[in-house]
Records
---
Amino acid sequence: MTALPRRPPLMAGHHRPSTVKGDEAMGQRPNDLRPWESPKALFGSELRRYREAAGLSIAGLCDLLQDSAPYSKSTIGTVERGESRPDRLLAVQADRVLDTREALTHMWDGLFKGANAVPAWFADWAMQEPKFDAIRSYQPLVVPGLLQTPAYAAHLLDNDEPAVEARLARQEVLASATPPRLMYVMDESVLLRDAGNPEVMRDQLQHLLAVSCRHVRLQIAPLRLHEGIGGAFAIGTLPDGGEVGYKDNAVSGDTTTDRLEIKRLTGLFASIQSAAYPVDQSLELIAKVAKEKWT
């Protein structure tokens, strides 16, 4: 029987990168990715696509990156699954070893450059926000970001100029040809909470009155116990009818596309909205507080 040709031996100190075949987790097929869900998911799906096109396993990619940018297999795996945010060095070095003509670096810059002005845990929602046809939101503590005045936002963000600019830049969507329909319910305490000085609060409340219209519906939930005491949340509706949810917590927030979770948030919003004052009474209350408390 004719013997199969043997591969040439490797030189000392070198090893051959592993290929996709015989790769991750004993030949199990990697989980399908959902690149439309977030910037992290989009970058991760592209990294996997380029890696597999090069015939490399995750271990093989790590081997090629080892000298210039040592990453563990688990780190690359979490990036590809969209579970962690990549650093720019990974994009640059992956472009080099995968010969992608800086495609990953260009994508990283588009998705993440300057994003430090937006908290990492809010970036996924901020990226989706311009796409929404409608937003429903409950805010128990502060005025919604899309409706904040510059002075009010500056107070909340400790005059962090890049963060304030990033928040105000989000409001550009309201001046687009097809702005989203906004349905906001705020707790009454939002109107009463000081924001540095009376002028800031008066101007903020007057701004709410000025922007209120058929596409921006504002309601105030009265000062009593209701289902909204659990925290702020929002539901964004995409043009295709898909929905994205966002939930605040004490130290960060979470964006979700889980249908059951969004169904729960939808029911919670309906319950809070039913306990709130109607739009006309809510606007009267905003005007009254602006005049009597902040003038």
---
Amino acid sequence: MQHILKTAVVTAGLMAAAPVSAQMVGLATTTGGATEQIGLHLATVLSDHSDLVIRPQVMANSSQYIPMVNAGRVEFGIANYPQVAHAMEGIGMSEGSANPDLRMIATILPFNAGLVVPVETGIESLADLEGQAVPRFPANSLGEFFFTAAMETGGVSYDEVKPVPTSNFGEQFNNIKSGLTDVTIGSVGAQSIMDVEASRGEVRYLSFKEGDEDILSRYLPGTSLTTWGDRGEAAGVTPDTVVLFYDYTLFAHKDVPDEVVTAALEALYTSADAARAGGALWSEYDETQLARVTTLPYHPAAEAFFRERGIWTEQ
């Protein structure tokens, strides 16, 4: 109950450089799916292991709150590395709308994902998506980029499927559970995929193949492939399943006070066990990798924190 009260406190955008004690801070995340799971657990860790009072601000999608963080209306946000990279530069998913006041705070964890289908559909490969009911997200959204890239690795385009208009990830999951679509984007270990399995029966991730990272990276910079191996059981994967991964990041407005950034990072760095207690999505969390990717501009307090602890990587 104490944590619920803490995270429910209302915050009003950026605060002045007040004492860190009991400072209220907003953390933007999406509704539904893995991003919400990550965001809510992150809020718990930061609230329980620092003097910050974190209020998750849940919105339909990250394209809504990235400009809000850039404008200083919310202190922190979380999103995948490809989307943050595009947002800072004003390309791709943020074509024509650069967000120059965003600053990286940390690379939180690797985000393992892919396209997931109910086994009952008979779809066994990405090429098999031809002719199937596929979500069609708004132009320049993460969902559109993800599906376009993943289908291209199987030689399939939107011209060869039955597109189903889909506004956000919450609707995507509802549509596949109801049978309106045949495939969904899913993060390995996410509750949303367990819910799909409960509704549609056994599910499978459609494996990528060697060389697909070249196509994927054109749409989703920083993307690599990984074979699941012996990392434990999760809905839809086997040891031989090949999924994509990119880093999930914590970012902020450039004027968030140094002491707020430092307090957040101190909590993440010293509370690794609490972070990993967040379930399968957090199982690969490694506090020594919080600055694993430094190709985007960091908040000065974050860079100073990582350099002091000897984990800053020059890239």
